[in-house]
Design goal:
Strand 7 (522-523) and strand 8 (527-535) form a beta hairpin. 69% of the residues lie in helices and 7% in strands. Helix 10 crosses helix 25 (674-701) and helix 23 runs antiparallel to helix 26 (709-747). The protein is α+β, with helices and mostly antiparallel strands and 766 residues long. Strands 5, 6, 7, 8 and 9 form a five-stranded antiparallel β-sheet that branches. Strands 2-3-1-4 form a four-stranded antiparallel β-sheet, sandwiched between helices. It has 27 helices and nine strands.
């Protein structure tokens, strides 16, 4: 009761910590804040030029009319007082500024003709805001540092303002843009994860009821592991580990691993209680044998996860931290709460049964029949596992040969599995915000851009502006670069189509250009921005194409030398994607092999026995190869979630092989030869391992029906990989360890008949 009280108090503490958890989805989750890439993108671009814009798209018969412009003006007036909006850019606001300079009145012209004349005379200014006569874009700009919660408030305010802006009934207004899409996707993912985890729990209950029913209270492991998850939430808050798109997927993994710990402790204490019924001895034996075995398995799993810390992607590192902390919490919950609860339930059950026997002694026969029925079902599982063992051991060379060949083929196939570069593919394609965003892109064209930050001594230097003009013209001849935007076209438009020859003339034009237009390209006196519009290149030419295009632009900058004292830095979302996706594709191979060597080193340190180390790691390494075949066969691309599968297989799978190996050598210590030891191992813990593996499969099966392809693919690959782990555990591990152990015994000169004779002689002496 003392232990349960302590763990109950830890629940209260964990609830306090869970309130400190924050959700992150910005650049810092993809790129380390210490990297040059982050400094260039976040500090130079996002904080200076970068803004988050909600886009209100107006579509109808003719958007270049006075009535529409007045409706836009009403919308702007409603939004101007909204906290968090730093500016609104629309054709109406620009027309009013131009009208003020011409007439001294800051108002929308009264006639359609006047409006059309202003628009037609300034194509460089209105070209992006009015892509055609039936569509208009209004940019509601927020600071780049605006939080997700604040962005959500501003989007709500914008949607309300649209309702009261009194546009003609025949016109349609859509509130869209990247912020609206990202927020709706995050909300849909967060709200959808709860039902999925609930469904996973239902599947786990069903699987536990079917596969783990040979023990009493077969559903107990589920609340025990959920207790470990609660402790993990608390630790997240206190340690400042944020919740991100990837770290959310840690919880299904933790449920799978944690329930295995709970099942192993539960299975062992039930086994010990059935031997002599002495609860004290049962607990001591359980902690003595299962505690260290599961702890070693946990340590090896943690070493496998440790490789995730080598990733350059912060959210992958957070994923590794969360998994490492989570498995420790689940282990503590299983060893203390799980074992103690079985102890208490056994007392209650015994008292109840003794009272029942006194009142209704005739029910003893019925109880015996029930126990007999449970044993027969358990014997069926053991019988199936025995058949599998017989087949794999009798055909050991065939089984190991096929497994190895498939592994080699999978490693080769994995090299040709690409990474998903289009992040919009992670969301359901019928998500309203995504449909609106795609509709806008269809009208305006792709919005992917490469941003060139140009550091200068003077933003009004004619030589610098001439270089930008020539470089822009040259780059538009490159494939995939559709257009450019900078301050230069605006200056030329205000100066009759040419760049002024003197600094003073340029300064005078700067004073005429509306601030909302100038601030998009000019910062202070020493920084300019040149945008290269590459349309939908991120999804069209993928990571490799973007990387090649960036290299070409860098060479062009070297060839068309910038004026003295000028430097150019290439940044932007596509550049960030190159770094992230490169880390996911190349980094996943490093993570897998590093995890492999870390676990192998850990096994050698713990056991000081090369056979034990190889027996635990090789079957799971084979599974990583099989996983590559699965990805290739199913046509699933690597994403931030599936890129971690190699490390997860090593971490999760090693637990199964370590537990099998621990029991195998425990049986050998009791005098069994290799064949006897593997059969006894399968007979004693095979059902428990199958139950835990099946429970994990049942849990992840719920993720496969997620409407989010990102989560659905992760669930599908994980389910298949856990099936492969179980196949390796029961078909590859037994023949491998028997073959290697028998070979070692022969090398040591210990023959099986001599060992048996010594055992018989010892028994006679006793």
């Amino acid at each position: 009761m003392t232990i349960l009280l302590i763990f109950f108090l830890l629940i209260l503490i964990s609830m306090q910590g869970a309130q400190k958890i924050t959700m992150e989805s910005g650049t810092e989750t993809f790129v380390s804040k210490d990297s040059k890439l982050y400094q260039d993108y976040d500090h130079l671009y996002s904080n200076i030029f970068g803004t988050n814009s909600i886009i209100v798209m107006v579509e109808g018969n003719d958007v270049e009319s006075a009535d529409i412009m007045k409706s836009v003006d009403r919308l702007e007036h409603q939004l101007e007082s909204t906290e968090g909006i730093v500016g609104i850019t629309s054709p109406t606001s620009i027309i009013k500024e131009m009208n003020y300079k011409n007439t001294g009145r800051s108002q929308v012209p009264a006639t359609d003709e006047e409006i059309k004349e202003i628009i037609d005379e300034n194509p460089a200014i209105f070209g992006t805001l009015i892509p055609d006569h039936t569509h208009m874009l209004i940019y509601v700009t927020m600071a780049g540092s605006t939080t997700d919660n604040k962005q959500k408030e501003i989007i709500t305010e914008t949607e309300e303002a649209v309702k009261f802006s009194d546009f003609p009934p025949s016109y349609n207004l859509i509130v869209t843009g990247d912020p609206a899409y990202k927020i709706e996707m995050s909300e849909a993912m967060s709200t959808g994860m709860g039902p999925l985890l609930g469904l996973a729990a239902v599947f786990m209950v069903i699987v536990l009821s079917l596969v783990f029913r040979h023990v009493r209270w077969c559903l107990l492991p589920l609340p025990v592991v959920l207790l470990g998850i609660v402790y993990t939430f608390g630790a997240m808050g206190f340690l400042g580990i944020p919740l991100s798109m990837v770290s959310m997927s840690a919880f299904p993994v933790l449920i799978g691993l944690g329930i295995d710990y709970a099942i192993q402790f539960h299975n062992r204490i039930e086994e010990e209680l059935n031997k002599d019924g002495n609860k004290s001895k049962a607990i001591i034996s359980t902690i003595k044998h299962t505690g260290p075995a599961v702890l070693i398995a946990l340590t090896m799993t943690a070493l496998g996860f440790f490789s995730l810390f080598t990733s350059t992607v912060p959210m992958i590192k957070d994923f590794g931290k969360l998994l490492t902390i989570g498995i420790l919490m689940c282990y503590l919950a299983a060893m203390f709460v799980g074992v103690v609860t079985v102890y208490i339930f056994d007392d209650i059950s015994n008292n109840f049964q003794s009272k029942k026997r006194k009142k209704e002694p005739e029910t003893t026969e019925i109880d015996a029949d029930h126990v007999s029925s449970d044993k027969s079902k358990n014997n069926l599982v053991k019988h199936i596992l025995e058949k599998v063992n017989n087949f794999s051991i009798k055909n050991n060379l065939l089984v190991l040969g096929i497994a190895t060949l498939l592994c080699i083929g999978g490693i080769y196939a994995d090299e040709s599995v690409g990474a998903q570069t289009d992040t919009t593919s992670f969301a359901p394609q019928d998500l309203p915000a995504l449909m609106d965003l795609n509709h806008m892109k269809d009208i305006t064209g792709g919005t992917d851009t490469l941003n060139l930050i140009i550091k200068v001594k003077d933003t009004a230097d004619p030589e610098v502006l001439e270089w930008i003009d020539k470089f822009s013209e040259h780059e538009t001849q490159r494939q995939h670069i559709e257009s450019t935007s900078s301050i230069v076209p605006l200056i030329k438009e205000y100066n009759g189509g040419t760049i002024p020859e003197t600094r003073d003339e340029i300064e005078a034009i700067y004073n005429e250009i509306p601030e909302s237009q100038k601030d998009r390209y000019v910062y202070g006196r020493n920084m300019l921005l040149l945008n290269l519009n590459i349309g939908n290149a991120v999804s069209d030419i993928k990571t490799t194409g973007i990387e090649e295009l960036t290299g070409i632009i860098e060479k062009d900058i070297q060839w068309m030398q910038v004026p003295p004292g000028v430097t150019v830095t290439i940044t932007g979302n596509p550049v960030v994607y190159i770094e992230v996706l490169g880390a996911l594709t190349d980094g996943r191979i490093l993570m897998t092999y590093l995890g492999l060597f870390l676990v192998l080193g850990g096994l050698l340190i713990v056991y000081r026995d090369w056979l034990k180390a190889l027996a635990a790691i090789i079957p799971m390494f084979i599974v990583t190869g099989w996983s590559g075949l699965v990805m290739k066969f199913l046509g699933i691309l690597y994403t931030p979630m599936t890129a971690t599968m190699g490390a997860l297989i090593i971490g999760i799978g090693c637990e199964y092989s370590v537990l099998m190996m621990e029991r195998y050598f425990e049986e050998k210590d009791h005098g069994a030869d290799p064949l006897q030891a593997i059969y006894r191992t399968s007979d004693s813990i095979g059902a428990a391992l199958l139950a835990s593996g099946s429970t994990v499969i049942g849990g992840f099966a719920a993720l496969t029906i997620s409407p989010f392809p990102l989560i659905g693919d992760f669930g599908t690959v994980t389910v298949i990989d856990i099936v492969l782990v179980l196949i390796a555990t029961f078909m590859v591990f037994p023949p491998f360890i028997v073959l290697m152990d028998t070979w070692r015994e022969k090398r040591r000169g210990i023959q099986a008949p001599q060992a048996k004779a010594n055992n018989v002689k010892g028994a006679d002496t006793q």
